[in-house]
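Researcher: Please translate sequence to structure tokens.
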Amino acid sequence: MPEKNRFYLASAPIWRALVHLCVPMIACFSVGSIYNVINGAFVGSLHSTPLLAALTFSLPVFALIMAIGGVFGVGGGTYVSRLLGSEEHDGSGAVRIRQVSSFTTWGAVVAGTVVGIAGLVFATPIAAAVGASGDSLAPTALYIGTMFAFTPVYVTCFALEQLVRAEGAAVASMTGLIASTIANLLFDVLFILVLGWGVLGAGIALGLSNLVMVGYYVWWLSRRSTSMSLAPRLFRADREMLATVFGVGVSELLQSAFLVVTSLVINWIAIGYGAALLASMGVALRISQLVEMMCMGVFMGAIPLFAYAFGARNRARLRRGITGAAWTIAGITVVFSTVVFLFRDQVFALFSDDPTVLSDGVLILTAMLVSTLFNGFTGLIIAVFQATEQMRNATIMSVAQGVLFIPVVLIAGAVFGMIGVVWATTATEVLTLGLGLALVLLSRRALDAAPSAEAMEAAAKAA
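Model: Translation complete:
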């Protein structure tokens, strides 16, 4: 592991460490969010509401695909960071780190291949299941099918990116993501504007750009990393490996699985108010994601810092890292949500000239921006639970977002109609954050505990 990266994880002043780790991630996620906006604008330039609706319908499917990568990437990445931190005490874990990185990579490849094949076979039924019908069914099935064709690439890409960040190499992670985004935009121009392939072109462009990112991360981990290895011969699937990686990673999968469920519910309810409302939700989501992705850049970027401090048993540094990340998220949500809110009419007009889409979209965007005030802190709490091996609490939080949303949206829709449906997500985020704060208060002792004896023993044996 390069000493410069270890310095930021182990001993750099907290604000300097957060800047090093989080600013590149904020830039990455923000660029990616901007790409989503531009991608929607490319498809929107075709002046087809069914095509815009197809992009909206596909969002939960893509989230689920990426969550499979998160099982391996977040689970394996936090495991690597904790092992790197534990080396400060006994020097053990070097071999285990290589085994974890190999397992993370090849496990992602196999899982992505299996899911991709299954998804290709059932693309049309899946499109119908997420709510597509009529004119939007065919483009939705086409776009979803294209995503499943590239599922091995998506899953592996996310897993590799998490491994790169596990060493504290935030700049390398940013380089891969930005290169992918630039490639994505170029491919969009080629496949959508030049060749006129519509949502098929958008799907191919997204897949090929992620392939570019996979290539870069494979090169970096093979040539620049001194701690990890992608060699298949180091692949291990022992009991401790499975329990540790999947114990943390399953919270990512459950969170996205329930996102699929909530998206299905909202799609089914929203379609009753017309296709324009559904298209408005898709556009508003892409705009509000800019703020949400910036907050995600903070807590995702800080996970290696949390995990390393936990593994090194440096509780003071862990607490300072959490406090610094919380203040950063608060500042981002207040400043940037306000800016987006002030210019909401002008931004929304870039996507559609349909008066109904515009009026509904501005209302939805307002609700989503308010929601980001709570969503960022909820994500930070989940990140802390994942980094400190609090698998149960991370799972509870991940499940809660989906479980709470369903009764909230049904009750709000029945009582307040469309307005209730629009604000249901915000209400759910408030309730979820309240639950998270309660879990933090109940589990404060876990932050003072050493990493699990099983994890330390497995690392010692591997060494």
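Researcher: Any highlights?
Model: The first helix runs from residue 3 to 10.
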